[in-house]
Design a protein that fits this description.
Blueprint (H helix, E strand, L loop, with lengths): L34 E3 L2 E3 L6 E5 L6 E6 L3 H16 L1 H4 L2 H17 L1 H12 L3 H21 L7 E2 L5 E9 L2 E5 L5 H14 L3 E5 L6 H13 L6 E3 L4 H10 L5 E5 L2 H11 L5 E5 L5 E4 L5 H12 L12 E5 L3 H13 L19 H16 L3 E4 L18 E4 L6 H4 L6 E7 L2 H8 L4 E2 L3 E3 L3 H10 L6 E2 L14 E2 L2 E2 L8 H4 E9 L2
Parallel strand pairs: 7-8, 7-10, 8-9, 10-11, 12-13, 12-18, 13-16, 15-16, 18-19
Antiparallel strand pairs: 1-2, 3-4, 5-6, 6-22, 11-21, 14-15, 17-20
Helix pairs in contact: 1-8, 3-5, 3-7, 4-5, 4-7, 5-6, 10-11
Length: 509
């Protein structure tokens, strides 16, 4: 079954420009920002801009260039010049050293970048700080990995010497969503630059601020002009131009599955390499012999963190029927303790949705779940606190009495909503876990290690964790099965997407 969005459109990583909430106001706008192309700060070729709006209070934060196809073409030419020029002569060690300096600069500007991310996206400042630290860690990892990228020698039947080279692709396009704006960009920038490519980064229109700032820091770190370019603009125009441009040899995209399908079609023009990290509907499988208290304490953050805007969110809880009622009770109590509030408050655990449009999408799913017979255990609407009235907030919501055929169990809500589904046997748990179009992440909770491994092997998913919800690591491969995508990010596996193998044979006869 292919998931279908609600009538007003699902909004996972899409760009929609203006999104003013009920209390929107312009106020005193900051100086308009500019794109980074060829080492220079530039406006869009046609001079158009769009507003970046805070989901916390509807305020216009700043305006940025509304880049289009002409700007993408400018960026491609700048990136190609850089690839053919000084960058092409750099050793792998020098690239790694520059990435290490880049990581240091990101750490030095951690608070500045975290404040931008929190204000721009509505995520809690504590989460934003952690994410910027993770970005620095990714750059540091690939700084160390740059000169570990090696070929191999191959024994062949003829009297000669055969070896392989790993070479960069050239100009690559990096299209990233709004849910983890800079962190997901780093997963692409790190291996792309370490492998010797030049890049065009297109952030989501909702969240372009940290991408622009980090491109400035890349120049400060010593990357030659044109190695990392940033084009801001709508995905339907700038993103589409990147996917179709004949001068781009590879596109990496994170976002909605339907958009990934469009990119695959557009990339066929010059047979681009593509890597896609798309949607998810990940399960938390809870067996009766699990540590239920620990599960209940950790489970809320596996789905409500980042206000549920996470492709790895464990948005389906599959629980063995004999402990169903106990798990519902424990989970409800833990969820009621989750602190929803102002993202600027250090105590806040769940901030706003990225936009008022995205909030409405989630509220539509909550309404549909009720119409299909699901029962709200906790949440189910907008917080009543008057202090939160002007922001795009949604209550963390638990649904029980859910069946696997309901839309809330099949489709990616991309909000703080979880569905509980009971099962009776290990085989049924695996069948239910696999009963979606997606296969990105998930967790298995049991004290029986044999059962844990059997279940992990049976679930069709790119990453699985056992007795925890930690499935993403900078050092380990990340990506999905089925309609959750193709290719792997993070770790040394990421280089498969940013290099091509050349085989060389020397005749010694």
């Amino acid at each position: 079954m292919t998931a279908q969005p609600p009538a007003n459109g699902h909004d996972h990583g899409h760009d929609h420009g203006h999104d003013h909430g009920p209390a929107a106001h312009s106020g005193a706008a900051a100086t308009p920002l500019k794109m980074v192309i060829g080492g220079k700060l530039v406006d869009a070729a046609d001079g158009q801009t769009f507003d970046v709006v805070s989901p916390v209070d509807g305020r216009v934060i700043v305006s940025v260039p509304k880049g289009g196809a002409e700007d993408v073409d400018r960026a491609v030419k700048a990136a190609q010049r850089a690839f053919d020029g000084e960058w092409h002569t750099w050793s792998q060690t020098r690239r790694g050293q520059t990435l290490a300096r880049f990581a240091t600069l990101i750490r030095q500007h951690l608070e500045e970048l975290a404040q931008l991310e929190s204000e721009n996206m509505g995520k809690p400042i504590s989460s934003a700080r952690w994410e910027i630290g993770a970005v620095a860690n990714v750059m540091e990892y690939y700084g160390g990995a740059a000169n570990k990228l090696m070929g191999e020698t191959i024994p062949v039947s003829k009297p000669g010497f055969d070896f392989t080279l790993r070479e960069p692709i050239g100009v690559v396009g990096l299209i990233v969503p709004w849910n983890f704006p800079l962190m997901l960009a780093s997963w692409k920038m790190g291996p792309a630059l370490a492998a010797g490519n030049t890049a065009i980064l297109k952030p989501a229109s909702y969240t372009p601020l940290t991408a622009i700032r980090v491109a400035e820091l890349a120049l400060e770190a010593g990357f030659p002009p044109g190695v990392l370019n940033v084009v801001t603009g709508p995905g339907s125009v700038a993103g589409a131009a990147i996917a179709a441009h004949p001068g781009i040899g590879k596109v990496a995209f994170t976002g909605e599955t339907a958009t990934g399908q469009e990119i695959m079609r557009a990339a066929a023009g010059n047979i681009k390499k593509i890597s896609l990290e798309l949607g998810g509907k990940s399960p938390n499988v809870v067996f009766a012999d699990a540590d239920l208290e620990r599960f209940a304490a950790e489970a809320p953050y596996s789905v409500f963190d980042n206000c549920g805007q996470d492709c790895c969110a464990r948005s389906r809880i599959l629980v063995e029927r004999s402990v169903h009622d106990e798990v519902v009770e424990l989970l409800a109590a833990a969820t009621l303790k989750v602190k929803v509030g102002d993202p600027a408050d250090d105590a806040t655990e769940v901030g706003t949705m990225v936009s008022f449009r995205q909030r409405q999408n989630v509220l539509d799913y909550i309404r549909m779940a009720g119409e299909e017979g699901a029962h709200v255990v906790v949440g189910g609407g907008i917080p009543t606190d008057p202090a939160l009235a002007n922001g795009a907030y949604v209550q963390p919501t638990i649904f029980d009495r859910v069946t696997s055929r309901m839309r809330i169990a099949q489709e990616e809500v991309f909000g703080p909503v979880v569905a509980i589904i009971p099962f009776d046997t290990e085989e049924e748990a695996i069948r239910l876990a696999n009963d979606t179009p997606y296969g990105l992440s998930g967790s298995v909770w049991t004290r029986d290690i044999a059962k844990a491994i059997r279940t992990a092997k049976g679930i069709q998913s790119g990453v699985i964790s056992i007795n925890c919800n930690s499935s993403v690591h900078a050092e380990a491969p990340f990506g999905g099965y089925k309609m959750s995508g193709t290719g792997r990010e993070n770790g040394m596996h990421a280089f498969e997407s940013y290099t091509q193998i050349k085989n060389v044979y020397i005749d010694l006869s």
